[in-house]
Amino acid sequence: MKQSKLMLTAGYAALLLISATFIIPFVWLLRSSLMNLSQIFTMPPEWIPKPFQWDNFHRALTILPFGTFFTNTLIIVAGVLIGTVLTSSIAAFGFSRIQWKGRDAVFGILMSSMMLPAAVTLIPSFLGWKMVGFYDTFYPLIVPAYFGGGIFNIFLLRQFYLTIPRDFDEAAFVDGATYFQIYRSIILPLSRSAIIVVALFSFLGSWNDFMGPLIYLKSDSLFTLALGLQMFQGSYSAQWDLLMAASAAVVLPCVIVFLIGQRYFLEGITLTGLKG
Amino acid sequence: MRKGLFYGLLFTSPAILGFIIFTLGPMIASLVLSLTDYNVFREQTAFVGIDNYSKLFSGEDELFYKSLGVTFYFVILRVPAVIIVSFAIALLLNLNVRGRSIFRTIIYLPSIVPAVASAMIWMWLLNPDLGLINSALSWLHLPTGNWLYSEGSVIPSVVITTLWGIGGTVIIFLAGLSGIPKQYYESIDVDGGGWYSKLRHITIPMVTPTIFFNTIMTIIGSFQVFNEAYILTQGGPNNKSLFYVFYLWRTGFRDTEMGYASALAWVLFVIILIFTFFVFKTSKSWVHYEGGERA
Amino acid sequence: MSRQRKSISVLLAFLIMLVTVLSACSKSDSNAGSGNASSPANTASSASAGGEKSDQPITLRMTVWGAPEEVAAYKVAIKKFEDKYPNITVKLQHIAADYDTKLTTMVAGNDVPDIAQMESASIAFPLAEQGKFYNLQDFLSSDPEINAERLVPNISYSLEPGNVIGLGPGPESFGLFYNEDIFKDAGLTPPPAKASEAWTWDEFVEVAKKLTIDNKGRNVTDPGFDPKNIKQFGVNFPTWWGSYSNFIFSNGGDFVSEDGKTFALNQPAAVEALQKIADLINVHHVAPSPVQAKNIPAPNVALQTKKVAMAIDGQWVSAGLAQSKFHFNVGVLPIMQKPMTTVVSGMFSMFKSTKHPKEAWELMKALMDPEASIDLITAGTWMPSYRDWYTDSALLAKWTENLDSRPSGYKDAIVDVLLNDSHQTPTGYVKNFNKIMDIVNPALDKVWLGQQTAQEAMDSIAAKAQAQVQGRRDVKG
Predict the structure, then answer these.
(1) Which position has the higher pLDDT, B144 or C191?
(2) Which of A237, A247, A250 should one mutate to test binding to chain C, selecting the residue with the greatest count of C CBs within 10 A?
(3) How far is residue B172's CA from residue A82's CA, in Å, rounded to a whole number?
(4) Domain count, chain C
């Protein structure tokens, strides 16, 4: 694909400018995590910590059992990630590549689950999970991922599946392929980008989820990083230096995962490669 | 293609089961509660019929109308802004420039920085006296504003702060862009068309399914805006940022009137449903699926 | 076709497996968690067995919020308590954020703790109104060690006279904190500490004017002073009810009338106080507007970096000030008509559903014992709850002398005023406080921004606010 030099340069400049704006919160977070309390609030803000308080990290990570929180978070995130990718991609296939009566109506009903504010379903959901004895376990946080992984993800994948030419399925059908084979050998490879997006979103969403663990967990030994992070915000004295250090420590793994994950959809697909 | 119904239901069964098990129950529960005077702390709950709804629409609850107006204003400003800005950024990120994986990560960063940290930044950026934005404006001899702190500009300011978190929308656009086969562009190159005709005839039609998705999601998300009021403004000044879901949460959890809050929720549900339905209906005329499928 | 069947059956097998695994988990788990699930039955049986023996193992649950060092202090107190009562185990549940949402959900799920830390402005009274809390008066009247007289004023919360629903582990009152160096450099006399010598409001304004400096070094009284470019404000005055209530009370005003029947913030005494505070911002330019104040978050930093010369704030800021290592001190609040401070404090409440009220009461006493939370008290975050810690000089010395957090003015300006001239927080006695303030706050926004006078703003919402007035908790009937 050819792009004119001029356009590339203009685009590059625009990207630099936009990135400069978008990176401010992250830089602010990092520099605050290395400052003492009074420098954090100096106005106008200073950008270089003086002195560098590396100790903030040490203190933040020892005050709370971050090792346990980290392990718990990993278990939940892994569980959610696997469930979401598996079942949302299968469900999206059923909502896009198979024709059946009532399909769009069913899809519309599922969509409606996103339209009711969570504040009013919080208590009924909690009561339900408690009734089956799952209060204070990871199940309320993980199990729903194995049942479609959220309509958001299904809808997203459905949109991508719908853009794949129907001829592929027809040809495969003529060759005697089953729906599952079409799903596995045609649709999945062609929607790799979208699936990686779903995987990334479910990783980050579950890593940063605060409300779920807050409501469904009560033992300290089960707490997650997102929950632990909140503990630095006291009601009278917010310890911003420690809060920022802990936040940075929690955010960094996300940044790395994102940096690696998004590399996989850098390249677009080519039709020739597919047919050949 | 026979047995479509069987296989369709089979493939979608995890999602349908999930909906029935995890979502339907709480939804029905809240609908029933909206017909009661449910208060979490009270032992007895009485069925009050449509009293909650008639209280809402009788004009007795001024804050209901106020928060509804605030939220509509927010949605109307934010949805086009998010779609246009995030699509533009996605196009830039899709250019074949050096270090674009770094750029992509940076654009996504604000979405994963904890909300309290971002809030602190916005307080500073938008501070009328010391903030970076006003300093920059006065340096350029442009008029400055009171941003979050004035009744007139609080909603546009909140819209600006949310634009910072559009990383997710951008990423979805990028995934959509990466699905466009390169051969399509080559045909324009052969015809001697420029970037505009590529954008107009290939890119935009090919990503309409993604635009459609992002539009629906942004509408649903914008109607349910909550965090910005909860963290940044507490609904002020003078209730000018009293977002609907913030008011709902306050009613349900602070004032413990969960029955009334449920009625509020169902009114919003119907509003969002109507908007989503409308967009779905119009999508037939503008969303283009390569698979030849209707939306 | 057979291949198609095969793949479908694989899919089916997978789903069935999933369901089986899940239901298996559910079974084993519901067994493990049966202590919770069947608790109503347990309650019934233990109640019918009648009373518990003292050596029977007992578990108490308690929920708290707070920063890690506060939680650490609770743990120390709990450890001592458990040593004293070896049969009792205390499970401390730290709810780091969204405390009310979490507690409300727990109540809905019948999973309440025995003791909860509560806040008067939030769901404490809604819970008490539905009879969820014990009346602690019954314990106070019969306990040999602790009673109402032994507690400092205004740290107990009553639903109505005689029905105590919560006791604070310590009071928090307000003072005028200041940077000593600023006064020295300006050659001004710092705020007096003794209530008898307190500044009048006008004296306070005059000093604040001299200490408000623009970017060219001019103060408010100098010609050419530029209120748009202020480098140092005379005073920081947070515009929330806790801080302005001090002056409404000092001026003889209130949020509602004495009989609890009338909205009173539009009455002359309250209006005058509100207007004078707004004038600090908009007429005298000695205090930052709420807009500017958003970026002056921590009083210790603001005072240390000379963003402000004085700060009206709660005594809890002492802890941060002590760590900041500069010459700070505290004076008594300026007076409008009489010396006065509002006392705000959290509280501990006991849920009616507790199976062990006696033990829970002992735990509450242990938490309120200043000896147990001495670290938080000496650090400056808390004050003791027992009156003798303020009146007995040996005990008083323990927490007010030779400490970074307790400067020279502290005893007069904070301790004495708390004992002699303190007022209960409005959240503690004004019924329906939050709903009233939902109407008042938007109107006050306009007052602080100088768009309306206090009289206009309060009059404009008086009728609506009056409709939300439901009486006082400290008045019978």
Answers:
(1) C191
(2) A237
(3) 20
(4) 2
CA-nearest of A236, A255, A225, A230 to A66 is A225
How far is CA C86 from each of CA B59, C55, C367, rounded to the nearest angstrom? 60, 8, 17
Tens-digit pLDDT profile for residues A1-10: 445 788 888 8
pTM, to two decimals: 0.88
B-chain residues near C108 (CB < 8 A): 40
Q: Which residues of B touch C295 (CB under 8 A)?
A: 123-124, 127, 129-130
Give residue-wise pLDDT tens across range C294-321: 666 678 888 988 889 999 999 988 988 8
User: Are C447 and C323 in a shared domain?
Assistant: yes
Put simply, the answer to whether A178 touches C8 (Cβ < 8 Å) is yes
Same domain as C441, residue C413 = no
Residue C13 lies in a domain: no
d(CA B82, CA A187): 29
Compute the distance between CA of residue C318 and CA of residue C178 in angstroms, rounded to an integer. Answer: 11
Residues in chain B: 295
B179 by Cβ neighbours in 10 Å (0-12 / 13-18 / 19+) ranks as: buried
- State the chains in contact with B (3 or more Cβ–Cβ pairs under 8 Å): A, C
CA distance C284 to C249: 23
| CB atoms inside a 10 Å sphere around CB C230 | 22
Is residue C101 domain-shared with residue C148, that is, in the same domain? yes
Q: Is B275 on the interface with A (CB under 8 A)?
A: no
The single residue listed with the structure tokens 């969403």 is A205
Same domain, C322 and C228: yes
Are residues C164 and C178 located together in one domain of the fold? no
Say if CB C2 and CB A177 are below 8 A apart. Answer: no
Whether residue C336 is found in the same domain as residue C370: no
Is there a domain that residue C453 lies in? Answer: yes
Domain that holds residue C197: 174-343+431-468
3-state helix, strand, coil in chain B (%, to 5): 70, 0, 25
For A188, the token pair is 């999945």
Alpha carbon A64 to chain centroid, angstroms = 25
pLDDT digits (tens, 9 = 90+) for C224-240: 999 888 889 999 999 89
Select from C7, C37, C93 the Cβ nearest to the Cβ of A133. Answer: C37
Distance (Å) from the C-alpha of residue A64 to the closest C-alpha of chain C?
8
Q: Which of C422, C441, C458 is the last residue of a domain?
A: C422
Same domain, C337 and C349: no
How far apart (Å, rounded) are the C-alpha atoms in residues B65 and A276? 60
Tell me if residue A183 falls in helix, strand or coil.
Answer: helix
- Which residues 141-200 on chain B approach chain A with CB closer than 8 angstroms? 164, 167-168, 171-172, 174-183, 185-186, 189, 195
Q: Same structural domain for residues C232 and C339?
A: yes
Q: Residue C319 is nearest to which of A176, A211, A237, comparing CB atoms? A: A237
Looking at the domain assignment, is residue C149 inside a domain?
Answer: yes
User: Is C413 within the bounds of a domain?
Assistant: yes
Taking the Cβ of residue B254 and every Cβ of chain C, the question of whether any pair is shorter than 8 Å is answered with yes
pLDDT by 10s per residue, chain A, length 276? 445 788 888 889 999 999 998 988 888 888 888 988 777 766 667 888 888 888 889 888 888 888 899 999 999 999 999 999 999 999 999 999 999 999 999 999 999 999 999 999 999 999 999 999 999 999 999 999 999 889 999 999 999 899 888 888 888 888 888 999 999 988 988 888 889 889 989 998 899 888 899 999 988 899 998 888 877 765 445 677 888 888 888 888 888 888 887 777 545 444 433 432
Question: What distance in Å separates the CA atoms of residue A18 and residue A104, rounded to the nearest whole number?
Answer: 39
As a dihedral over the C-alpha atoms of residue C138, residue C142, residue C143, residue C149, rounded to 10 degrees, the angle is 80
CATH number at residue C146: 3.40.190.10
How far A51 CA sits from the closest chain C CA (Å)?
15
